[in-house]
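Hi everyone, sorry if this is the wrong subforum. Our group has a chain we'd like a structural model of before ordering constructs, and none of us has done structure prediction before. Sequence below.
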Amino acid sequence: LKDILQIPEPKSKPISIRQLGDNYASLLKEIHSRGDTNIILDISTEKILPFFREAVKVNMFSDYNNFFVINLDMHTLNIPSWNEIGPNITCLRLVTPDSDELIEAVRIWQRREFDFEITENQVPIEAALVHDAVDMYVKGLKLYAVKGRQISKIKNSCADAKRGPKTHGYQFVNFLKSMEGNGTTGALKFNNEERYNGSRTEFKLEILELYKGNFRKIGYWDQ
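Answer:
Right subforum, don't worry. Here is the predicted structure as tokens:
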């Protein structure tokens, strides 16, 4: 949120910061009494629906209120349609439900788990990121071997504080950072500039708007 707080000019209306505790109603009443209508909400997934239920009760669920939710899993929730005319609720999504990579990943999970009932629309960001990380790691191992670099097996005990040296670790990590591909979270490409140190900097976020209980895409953001 640091960059957002630096946007306003000195003469602009001040930005208020509040920590979200357990008493949502009290906080919402305070915000409502101040006349604030534009809210950036940084909240965990399990708290989203209870928060908005309280917003309905304190009359902060009208078309005069704007909520921007910083939670990449909000689209996975089953949002009830409390009223026909509600607030402008916007959120972001990294995982695209209709992507071929995600559809294939869900099929794999369904084959391996007997009671797996999550659909493409319900895949949380953490699960998608872990899937992409493991998939990239496995592909990296195979490509690493194809290029004639075999990783020797060394027996180590997890209880031993003085474990053996990782002779291939540094080289293999650098090899992974040079790889590119597509995953459930979009294009997988790592920025090897010194200041980024192999982080993902090229990715696309879809901008979603809640309309009558459903999310619809209204744009996207990328770098």
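For your construct planning: Residues 140 and 176 are 6 Å apart (CA to CA). Residues 125-146 form the longest helix (22 residues).
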